[in-house]
Design a protein that fits this description.
About 0% of the residues lie in helices and about 25% in strands. It contains no helices and 14 strands. The chain has strands at about 65-70, 80-85, 85-90, 95, 110-115, 120, 130-135, 140-145, 160, 175-180, 185-190, 200, 220-230, 240. The protein has a six-stranded antiparallel beta sheet with strand order 1-13-11-12-3-2, with no helix packed on it. A four-stranded antiparallel beta sheet has the order 5-6-7-8, with no helix packed on it. Strands 4-14 form a two-stranded antiparallel sheet. It is globular and about 45 Å long.
């Protein structure tokens, strides 16, 4: 599905720190008919979110994330998953457990949590795994002891947070947001093939200059990342697969 590059930016919703108990994603209502991006909701700016971009202490419950798209039904409310060192919509979670480890977690769901100064994947790997943005604007994860790349022209790596300063307009949800690059709340999803899966990037002007899956940035769409509580066993994986 093609659209002008001027339509990459998604509509942004307002958020609170936790989804209601028993929340059903279909409560968001019907998906708008395909066409121009629906931008009737309040747009969020970096300055409006500045209150939520401080350190995220180790106080959040584990959570998963879903893509919200008012433009693409095949992406709307689908899980955002970790695999091959990157994040995807419409792709299975990829994980690995050494054969020497007994009682490996199942590793088929991508689970995150807020920690002091950022967001990490919930894994058994002793050094942990953290999420960030590489030099190509891809949302990635690395072992926590590894350095995080920096997008050219930026002074430091991007960092991720759970929103805790909602803008007063319904519906209110937690969101996975970021600082240091781009639009703070908005992500760009680009399809590998017309049927997917979709790779997740941060939304920055330079993305037009970066190679994207499928080779055509006008196939990409804007998405938001909604956080929902995870109540299953943790850690959810020994480690998420980086290759």
């Amino acid at each position: 599905m093609h659209f002008s590059t001027t339509l990459l930016l998604s509509s942004v919703f307002s958020f609170s720190l936790a989804l209601p108990a028993g929340f059903d994603p279909t409560d968001l209502g019907p998906l708008p008919k395909p066409g121009r991006l629906n931008i009737s909701y309040s747009r969020t700016t970096y300055s409006q979110l500045s209150g939520s971009l401080g350190k995220s202490g180790p106080i959040s419950k584990p959570f998963t994330i879903k893509a919200y798209s008012s433009f693409e039904p095949s992406v709307h409310l689908k899980d955002i998953t970790a695999s091959n060192g990157k994040f995807w919509v419409g792709n299975a979670t990829g994980s690995y457990c050494p054969p020497t480890v007994a009682d490996c977690p199942v590793g088929n769901v991508t689970v995150l949590q807020a920690i002091e100064g950022g967001v990490e994947l919930v894994v058994a790997l002793p050094e942990g795994q953290k999420i960030g943005v590489n030099e190509k604007a891809e949302v990635v994860f690395v072992n926590s002891t590894d350095p995080m790349p920096v997008i050219p022209g930026r002074k430091k790596p991007a960092n991720f947070f759970l929103s805790d300063n909602p803008i007063p307009a319904p519906p209110k949800f937690s969101a996975l947001i970021y600082s240091g690059v781009g639009k703070a709340t908005e992500y760009t999803a680009c399809p590998i093939t017309p049927e997917g899966p979709w790779q997740v990037f941060v939304t920055i002007p330079e993305i037009y200059d970066f190679p994207v899956p499928g080779g055509d940035v006008t196939d990409c769409i804007g998405i938001d990342a909604l956080a929902t509580d995870y109540t299953g066993p943790t850690p959810a994986a020994y480690q998420y697969a980086r290759r």
